[in-house]
Design goal:
Layout: H1 2-28, H2 36-51, H3 55-61, H4 63-67, H5 69-75, H6 77-82, H7 84-88, H8 91-116, H9 118-124, H10 131-141, H11 145-169, H12 176-198, H13 200-227
Length: 228
């Protein structure tokens, strides 16, 4: 038991050290490819492969770090409260973003099924939902959880790495507010974290869109995916 606790503590310490080292590098030389989420993930994967440490054991041992996601999400409420007047005034934009996102997700099932097969197409329909909600939908509808996780991570990383630059090409009239809303809706937590790096307004709009899309997806997609 003592050896197990020490092993878990060592992996938690290693994860934190790697993350903060990558963050220090990112602060000194900011670039999307050097983002601490990308950098730290790559280093940890390489370390796990080199040591042949079982992934399930690593996931179980570092579970306290996953618990910290809860307080981190709650902390997003502060900028939302500070921007509450601006957010309430843009309720039409939020509604439009969520509705379009749902239509595209449902439509992707029909378009991708002939190309990728039913399992992959249905799993990709929830790629833009935050992981806990996506896994909950998977449990209700019989989706393959491994495919769901891959889709969610890919969507988050894509939005975090090139989302702001891609969205800026369209020169949205709402500026950071619109970019933040798009990142939160399309790339959930990772997109929201990237939005906060742009501005408090972008982060607040991303937080609201991430929450609203999770609610909408959690209600609509189980019904749709159970029927297709």
């Amino acid at each position: 038991m003592i050896a197990l606790i020490l092993t878990d503590a060592m992996w938690i310490a290693a994860t934190l050290l790697i993350f903060f080292a990558c963050r220090a590098l990112y602060v000194r030389q900011p670039h999307a490819a050097r983002h601490p989420v990308v950098c730290a993930t790559a280093v940890l994967v390489a370390l796990l492969v080199a040591t042949r440490y079982p992934l399930p054991a690593f996931q179980a041992g570092t579970r306290p770090l996953v618990w910290l996601l809860g307080p981190a999400v709650v902390a997003m409420a502060l900028p939302v409260w500070q921007k509450r007047t601006l957010i309430v005034g843009n309720w039409r934009m939020f509604s439009a973003v969520i509705i379009v996102s749902l239509i595209l997700s449902v439509g992707s099932v029909l378009v991708l099924t002939p190309l990728l097969g039913s399992d992959m197409a249905r799993a990709l329909a929830v790629k833009s939902v935050t992981a806990p909600v996506a896994l909950g939908i998977a449990g209700q509808t019989g989706l393959r959880q491994d495919l769901v996780v891959v889709g969610v991570m890919t969507s988050g990383l894509f939005g975090m790495l090139i989302g702001p630059a891609l969205l800026a090409l369209g020169r949205p009239r709402g500026g950071h507010a619109v970019i933040g809303a798009a990142l939160g809706c399309a790339s959930h937590g990772l997109g929201t974290a990237r939005a906060f790096e742009l501005s408090q307004t972008a982060g607040a709009f991303a937080s609201v869109c991430m929450g609203l899309s999770a609610l909408a997806y959690g209600i609509v997609l189980p019904l749709v995916l159970s029927a297709v």
